[in-house]
Amino acid sequence: MTVKLGTNPIAWSNDDLPELGGDTPLETCLRETREAGFTGTEMGNKFPKQPDALKAKLGEYGLEFVSGWYGAELLTRTVEEEIRAMQPHLDLLAACGCKVMVFAETSGTVQGRRNVPVADRPVMEEDEWPGYLDRIAKLSEYMAGKGVALAFHHHMGTVIEKAAEVDRLLSGTPDTVGLLFDTGHFTFAGDDPAAVSKKWAKRINHVHAKDVRADVLKRALAERWSFLESVINGVYTVPGDGFVDFEAALRPIADAGYGGWIICEAEQDPAKAHPLTYARKGYAHLRATAEKLGLTVQ
Asked: Which domain holds residue 52?
């Protein structure tokens, strides 16, 4: 199978913490993304929001537009309300030819609250699950009709963070609910990425590849850091710079015939982790891993 390697501008300029790389020009991010070897990128807040302008800007650097984050509140909204909220973003992705939407459930999330320990995240109540599964199934079917698949992003600090919660989500929904498989978030949550990919390989429709620094993770858990404090202190890094086994994590996906994007995504402080240096390191590790697994990198 053939895969494509892309990245996310969060390594250059962080949307959640604007002070991290806030003064880095978009052009620097795009130029260095291509210099590192990547052929696509996900959305950043400095990107043009009109389809033609966005495609033209990325085209200047030989880059494809892959997808973009959407923070849903489907736990507290109706399907119709969520559709109205997401429609501009969905229209942008569809107009740009994106195959998936990065979709996270952010009702009550603590991921952006710097003074709240990530361990104090909200948890979905037992009686909330049936209605949520029904609504997200209907929403995913609507999105599929528009040509953009839902790629559910389990995320630290949200109601669906751990492998057991992903199991419940996917077990209770149709195939139109795909899984965005994120090695870094599963590892931070205390789960084995390889076990998840082995179980759900057929449902994985997008991949975020980020590594984790074991020493920083140990402190983050012991000292009850918030998600943002963990990021600032370097819990995440690019593939090949931490302790995640990417060959084990990605092998089930490769064996299942995955042919989409693998996104190198590692939010770090660019003042501490030079973006181009780390982007090159992440690209090299991902490409070597893909080739070991018999994948062709386009």
From this structure: 2-297
Mean pLDDT of the chain: 96
CB atoms within 10 A of CB 245: 15
CATH of the domain at 238: 3.20.20.150
Q: How far apart are CA 164 and CA 278, in angstroms?
A: 32
Cβ pair 193, 244 in contact under 8 A: yes
Ranked by mean pLDDT, the top range of 15-29, 70-84, 258-272 is 70-84
Residue 22: the pLDDT is: 75
Report pLDDT digits (tens) over 221-262.
999 999 999 999 999 999 999 999 999 999 999 999 999 999
Instruction: Domain count for the chain, please give it.
Output: 1
pLDDT value at position 16?
A: 76
Report d(CA 214, CA 131) in Å as an integer.
Answer: 38
Nearest to 2 by CA among 262, 196, 271, 263: 262
Residue 105 neighbours by CB under 8 Å, 6+ apart: 72, 73, 74, 75, 152, 158, 159, 160
CA-CA distance, 43 to 39, in Å (whole number)? 14
